[in-house]
Design brief:
Blueprint (H helix, E strand, L loop, with lengths): L5 H17 L4 H14 L1 H21 L4 H11 L5 H11 L10 H9 L11 H7 L4 H16 L53 H17 L3 H8 L2 H19 L9 E7 L5 H14 L3 E5 L4 E7 H28 L3 H4 L2 H34 L3 H19 L13 H13 L12
Antiparallel strand pairs: 1-3, 2-3
Helix pairs in contact: 1-2, 1-3, 1-8, 2-3, 3-5, 3-8, 4-5, 9-13, 11-15, 12-13, 12-15, 13-17, 15-17
Length: 437
């Protein structure tokens, strides 16, 4: 048996990770020491690994990270040998919490990673055997993963810390026993540390399921005319759904009061051209009465708004990003000057122009829908929207007290023209007319 206590082995792992993360000398020395520990007592090393990763993951939650954030950032940053350890480590760490102490969105994110209660512990020896990994390479992967977790930046906290969530009195939880987050890069969700943390109303999931189903068909179609036929009801239907729900919420609380369900979620951007692509999320957010703040590293956009508006923004943004990428590929294939369509300038201009034109279409549809609802409801709508904007702005200021405006330069007229043309053909439709149950 090893003569050293478990805490010493944990400390050596941590020192090795720090040396790797900072580029300091001594990484090989620590690796040799860990190898000797492993030869003497593998069970002790397994315990040390579990304890170390549990601690580092708790620190990550404290710094504002969520499970989906770690999965997205890890997919971009972690080496191939260490990435498969991340999700099992996240699951193992959640053995410390009762499921009732996790926000519904947090549970959804875990489910999207394939993690559901009861969570399994991370047994390094069993994991290495299952993945047919050589032991010393697995030890190295643990050090790499620990180095990654040690260097995570601080993010605004969008959800209650695991173990601290409490549903608001009288609210109906949206927690699903076997739900899953969206599988696309924009699946991260979150809410304010205060408030009702995302309880959903009856019929909400069914309506969004219909939206996602139709968008999946729109993304799959190979015929632009078919996609165009769907786009007429695009933002109109989303806006109608949202405005109807806002009125129901206000009237349901009596005397026009509106419960504060302002929230935030992160939509991760795929490289390259993340700044240009983020503008698409920005215009979708604006059309849906949300605010968007881009972070370059890590590459995501934080969208702040009411819960329903956030969901609609995320669903449509994700679909339009898929459509934009597909349209860019098709444009390159059709272009006579293939060389230009492959340049960075062309593609950056394409995404910026696409976003601008999409924004024009969305805003026009949203404005028309709001005018129609105002004509139908009289003076009921404007106070509701003003109150909701006040709530959302307050949360935005809390999360991001300082923001700056960024402009993206373009230098390809052909890319700009191609992007606007593709945006004119983009499918914005989401579903048949929807009203809250």
């Amino acid at each position: 048996m090893n003569q050293w206590p478990d805490e010493h082995v944990v400390a050596v792992f941590r020192s090795a990770a720090i040396a790797m993360a900072t580029g300091q000398a001594g990484t090989e020395l620590f690796a040799g020491e860990l190898g000797r520990f492993d030869e003497i007592d593998r069970a002790q090393v397994d315990r040390a690994v579990s304890a170390l990763l549990d601690t580092l993951l708790r620190d990550a939650w404290d710094r504002g990270w969520q499970p989906n954030d770690l999965a997205e950032f890890g997919r971009r940053e972690l080496e191939a040998d260490a990435l498969p350890l991340l999700v099992p480590a996240i699951g193992s760490q959640h053995r410390a919490y009762a499921v009732e102490g996790l926000a519904p969105q947090w549970v959804d994110q875990l489910a999207g990673l394939g993690l559901r209660a009861p969570f399994e512990s991370l047994d390094l020896t069993a994991w290495a055997k299952q993945h047919r990994q050589v032991r010393y390479l697995v030890i190295d992967a643990v050090v790499t993963l620990a180095a990654f977790l040690l260097t995570l930046p601080v993010l605004p906290r969008l959800l209650p810390l695991p173990g601290t969530y409490r549903p608001s009195p009288g609210a109906t939880s949206s927690r699903r026993a076997s739900g899953s987050a969206a599988s696309t890069p924009g699946a991260s969700s979150g809410v304010s540390p205060v408030g009702s943390a995302g309880e959903r109303k009856p019929g909400h999931d069914k309506a969004l399921g219909r939206i996602r189903g139709l968008l999946a068909k729109a993304e799959a179609t190979e015929f632009p005319d078919e996609a165009d036929a769907l786009s007429a009801k695009a933002q109109e239907l989303m806006a109608k759904f949202s405005l109807d729900q806002a009125l129901v919420d206000a009237l349901g609380n009596g005397q026009g009061d509106l419960a504060d369900d302002s929230a935030a979620r992160r939509i991760w951007m795929e490289s390259p051209y993340t700044a240009a692509k983020s503008q698409l999320v920005h215009v979708v957010a604006m059309a849906n009465r949300c605010h968007a703040v881009m972070t370059e590293r890590p590459p995501f956009v934080t969208v702040v708004g009411s819960e329903l508006d956030l969901e609609l923004t995320e669903i449509l943004s994700t679909s339009l990003l898929v459509q934009a990428n597909r349209a860019l590929l098709a444009t390159g294939q059709r272009a006579r000057r293939h060389d230009e369509s492959r340049t960075q300038a062309f593609r950056r201009a394409f995404f910026v122009a696409y976003a601008q034109r999409i924004g024009e279409r969305l805003q026009a549809a949203a404005d028309a829908t709001q005018a129609a609802v105002e004509a139908e409801q009289g003076d009921l709508l404007l106070p509701v929207l003003a109150k909701r904007e006040q709530q959302v702005t307050a949360l935005l200021t809390t999360l991001f007290p300082k923001t700056t405006t960024r402009r993206t330069r373009i230098s390809s007229g052909a890319g700009w023209a191609a992007g606007r043309d593709a945006a004119n053909r983009a499918t914005l439709d989401t579903a048949p007319a929807l009203r809250p149950a």
